[in-house]
Design goal:
With 125 residues, the protein is an alpha+beta fold. It has one domain: HIT family, subunit A. It is 27% helix and 26% strand. It is built from three helices and seven strands. The model has no long low-confidence stretch (mean pLDDT 89).
Length: 125
């Protein structure tokens, strides 16, 4: 089972961020508001730095925390059409080959705090 933890201050900042968001989806406006965070982009997905990165993952120090985020709003991977699925898998393969572990929460996972599907790419020491 993956165990993830954020630095105490980062977690506090994240909770404040969620409270300020209300019902807004931060990922739906990502291209307009934070384009400098986009590291890779396909027609249907983008790879971004995690704004509130995990510090620990599976009891190891996290060296890098990225996320694959679909450009359009989807709650879960099973909602992707073939084009989105192809772009998503292209990015998963690319980043896994670079040493990143891949993790996404199911739509009904109680730990999922943002309803826009996003897949964590975690590189550990």
């Amino acid at each position: 089972m993956a165990m993830a933890a954020r630095d105490t201050q980062v977690q506090s900042d994240y909770q404040d961020y969620l409270a300020e968001l209300g019902d807004a989806c931060p990922f739906c406006q990502l291209r307009d508001n934070e384009s400098e965070q986009i590291l890779d982009e396909t027609d249907h997905c983008m790879v971004v730095h995690a704004k509130f990165p995990y510090e620990r993952w599976d009891s190891h120090t996290v060296d890098d925390h990225l996320m694959i985020v679909p450009i359009h709003h989807y709650v879960a991977v099973h909602e992707f059409d073939d084009a989105v699925s192809a772009d998503f898998m292209t990015l998963v393969k690319l980043y896994e080959s670079r040493g990143y572990s891949v993790y996404a929460r199911a739509a009904n996972n109680p730990s999922k705090t943002i309803r826009h599907q996003h897949t964590h790419l975690i590189k550990i020491s």
